[in-house]
Amino acid sequence: MELRNIAIIAHVDHGKTTLVDELLKQSGAFRANEAVSERAMDSNDIERERGITILAKCTSVEWHGTRINIVDTPGHADFGGEVERILSMVDGVCLLVDAAEGPMPQTKFVLTKALALGLRPIVVLNKVDKPDAEPDRALNEVFDLFANLGASDEQLDFPHVYASGRSGWADLELDGPRKDLSALFDLIVRHVPAPKVLARVDEPFSMLATTLSADPYLGRILTGRVESGRISTGTTLKALSRTGERLEQFRVTKILAFRGLSQTPIDEAVAGDIVTLAGMTKATVADTLCALEVDTALPSQPIDPPTITVTFGINDSPLAGRDGTKVQSRVIRDRLMKEAEVNVAIKVADTPGGEAFEVSGRGELQMGVLIENMRREGFELSISRPRVIMRDIDGVRHEPIEEVIIDVDDEYSGAVIDKLTGERKGELVEMKPAGVGKTRIIAHVPSRGLIGYQGQFLTDTRGTGVLNRIFHGWAPHKGPIQGRRQGVLISTESGVSVAYALWNLEERGRLFIGPQEQVYTGMIIGEHSRDNDLEVNPLKGKKLTNIRASGSDEAVRLTPHVRMSLEEAIAYIDDDELVEVTPKIIRLRKRELDPNERKRAARKD
């Protein structure tokens, strides 16, 4: 049977996972009466809730005698570590582009990685049946993007199809029959080359591990593409680190291959197959699994370095331990180290005291997903404000710069440009019309300036703007950037909040808590309307007397309070504040800064 390995890459919400659903259905991977959930490849609860792909996943379909291994990749740059490893397993990519939006920042990010590996993409213009779709404009923009990224002549001569993933059709012509995906299947078989490593079947076995997971019965399991030779169950292998150091010797207890959405045990795998091996205890992502006579590790894709760092600590508030079951620093450290082993884009380091841990990653979304997973597992944590990682280049302090692409109604473009280029030290690169009444703004902004900007951006655009960002490069430090303007309301008492007290505090600013909620001294219960912090008493009840006056006993009517999401809370806090995260609630509180942190806060980096 012929073999093709292909990855599907695209920007967030351009329809990758929905298209994979239809490929699985039309290839006969499901029984006619089988119940299949929407976006079947999104197996993680958070992926389903947010509608984004976080973990790269493999599946396999058969089409007219050819087995096609398909890898669904994340579209968000925060999870780019997954994309970088996965692309080394495949021989071709399907680049999905929304026919209305055109290429977006993450389109550029994943395409850059694919072109650097010499892959020849197939362009799928998706959602061409939308009322605002402009497939010809989108196709021209894709070609310009290929040219700007230095694509070769062979890569520039890319085939394309017009498709609707949700409706389950793809055609070579815009006015085609729109019946099924057979045109896309045929194009994949025709355009994507068979794995080059098929010629290395007779060489000793070697495989580069690209994803790591655990199975309750099989233990640690590693997935990757067989680069050379063949492997059968019971064979003894060894694991080599990236530097060629021998890690362990083990016996393969199980070989699993992807068949539809499930993994099926097989007796033997050969070069070119994407398979999962079980039996190892130490080997991890980017290690080489090979025959005993092999001494050289396979080259692994370099991973872009982290750009932000967040401090994870124990929850030491007065309400600690009431909601979660995992509160000790030892347990938190073990969980973070386990995460760093699976996710190569995350780095974990101990702090001098040993009670907190510096976790570095790609962005606020990646950190938010990790924290959300931990709180669902029963952890209680205290989280610091994200800090940007600086770099010294030729003795000059440099900071990361991000390319920001914003689609906004024309009437709000002035406010957005003013905030980005004035307060946040950004540089306007391009501004152009983007459809009826819309403007597209492209700017290069320091990563520091974007921390906490999302909420302000939604306020400035009345919730109608769309902001996308991608790492652009390094630039000399641009000086201080003003942080949050408003101060906070801090509780001076511990107990249960009282509606009457909150009603009196409403004129001081917006509140983060409602009546009958547990509060404690030092907890942040709202945002002050001015730029200074204000200590308040949310427990102060109404003084009762035996005198009754007209209107004095009216019911208290409170304005609905603001309930922040995890990412909003992390972006909102200042250097001397923490987010308290438990399985049931998210709180904000003040903390004491040590002398070094006081200096850093004074410099405002």
Describe the structure.
There is one protein chain. This protein has 605 residues and is an alpha+beta fold. It has 15 helices and 35 strands. Strands 18, 19, 20, 21, 22, 28, 30, 32, 33, 34 and 35 form an 11-stranded mixed β-sheet that branches. Strands 12-11-17-8-9-16-13-14 form an 8-stranded antiparallel β-sheet, covered by helices on one side. Strands 2-3-1-4-5-6-7 form a 7-stranded mixed β-sheet, sandwiched between helices. A hairpin with a 5-residue loop joins strand 19 and strand 20. The longest helix has 14 residues, at 135-148. It is globular, with a radius of gyration of 27 Å. Mean pLDDT is 83; it is low at 31-43.
What secondary-structure arrangement, pairings included, does this model have?
Layout: E1 2-10, H1 16-26, H2 45-50, E2 57-63, E3 66-72, H3 80-86, E4 92-98, H4 105-116, E5 122-126, H5 135-148, H6 153-156, E6 160-164, E7 169-171, H7 182-191, E8 206-215, E9 219-228, E10 230-232, E11 236-240, E12 246-251, E13 254-259, E14 262-265, E15 268-270, E16 274-278, E17 288-290, E18 308-314, H8 329-342, E19 347-350, E20 356-361, H9 364-376, E21 381-383, E22 387-388, E23 391-393, E24 396-409, H10 413-423, E25 427-433, E26 438-446, H11 447-450, H12 453-460, E27 466-476, E28 488-491, E29 495-496, H13 499-505, E30 509-511, E31 518-519, E32 523-528, E33 534-536, H14 566-572, E34 577-581, E35 586-590, H15 595-603
Parallel strand pairs: 1-3, 1-4, 4-5, 5-6, 28-33
Antiparallel strand pairs: 2-3, 6-7, 8-9, 8-17, 9-16, 10-15, 11-12, 11-17, 13-14, 13-16, 18-20, 18-21, 18-22, 19-20, 21-34, 23-24, 24-26, 24-27, 25-26, 28-32, 29-31, 30-32, 32-35, 34-35
Subcellular location: Cytoplasm
Subunit structure: Monomer.
Domain Tr-type G: 1-196
